[in-house]
Amino acid sequence: MPARTSKKTANIIFERSRIDARAVLVDEQLNLRTLDELRRWAARRIPVRVIKSATGEDITRILLA
């Protein structure tokens, strides 16, 4: 996957799977993202915001802690 170079905040949607115990993380272009990938972005200071789809709540700090 290409590295993000833009300073625009990447909005990621967090959706609980109804089939599996895992969650699905999807970016604005509907690409699946992993939690490890988001952690690497945060470490490189790429702005990212994770939104819980069911409530609209920003859960970035909780998820990346």
Protein architecture, described:
- The chain is α+β, with helices and mostly antiparallel strands.
- The chain contains two helices and four strands, in the order βββαβα.
- A four-stranded mixed sheet has the order 3-2-1-4.
- The radius of gyration is 11 Å and the shape is globular.
- The longest helix has 9 residues, at 35-43.
Instruction: Detail the poorly predicted runs.
Output: none
Order of helices and strands: EEEHEH
Main sheet, how many strands, which sense, barrel? Answer: 4 strands, mixed
Note the gap between the termini: 24 Å
User: Helix amount, in percent?
Assistant: 10-25%
Number of strands: 4
Q: Based on Cα principal axes, name the global outline.
A: globular
Any descriptors?
globular; single chain; 65 residues; 2 helices
Brief synopsis:
The chain has 65 residues and is α+β, with helices and mostly antiparallel strands. The chain is 22% helix and 28% strand. The chain contains two helices and four strands.
Structural topology:
Elements (H helix, E strand, L loop, with lengths): L9 E7 L6 E4 L5 E2 L1 H9 L4 E5 L7 H5 L1
Parallel strand pairs: 1-4
Antiparallel strand pairs: 1-2, 2-3
